[in-house]
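Support request, please re-run this one:
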Amino acid sequence: MLNWAARYFPILRTLKNTVGVQDTILEVGSGSFGLANYLPGRVVGCDVKFSVQPLFNLLPVRASAGLLPFADGSFAAVVSSDVLEHVPPSDRPQVIRETLRVARKLAIFGFPCGPLAQKLDASFLDFYRVHSLRPPEWLEEHMAYPFPELDLFESLGPQWHVDCFGNESLRFHNWLNHRERTGPWNRIFQTGLRAVPTLIESCLRHFDRAPYYRQICVVERP
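Re-run finished. Output below.
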């Protein structure tokens, strides 16, 4: 789906600039697809459940994001995309610490950020309810806790360098959510991603503008 591409393409650009082809990558909260849908090499995917058969290049590991079953520095890079908003606020610092613990070079966190983004998702959930439609599980879960803020990354210490940037404008994210509810639009998006991925990526970058729906924080060892 185009929504996935919009959130993963900036992560892929960052990985391309910092991680070698032989480096190992972990995705926390990968589900059965995640980052492995965009990389030809093996990705280790950690999640509490895998609802369908994982992709062939994703090695699934069942575990909690707050207690990862890996040694310190096991992976060159660790990715956590749209995970923190599903975690209770009191547990988020532990999830970040665990992600950084197993990262040797860098960790990338992407997450819907702040009250404006959550208000947009609440409006989308209301749309489903008004039209007596069953909302997706992720959308209902987005209402459980306040969305994360950037201050989560302000006190990581001198051993980490943090760079955050915005991803997806609120207006574009709202438009995309409504388009992807229908089969014809999904087929158009899928065809475009297969046929002209570079052009689609360029178009998506055009919509990375404020006010943002998502923030992406790249946390690197100096």
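Helices lie at 2-18, 92-101, 114-130, 137-141, 170-179, 183-195, 197-206. Residues 2-220 form a domain with the Rossmann fold fold (CATH 3.40.50.150).
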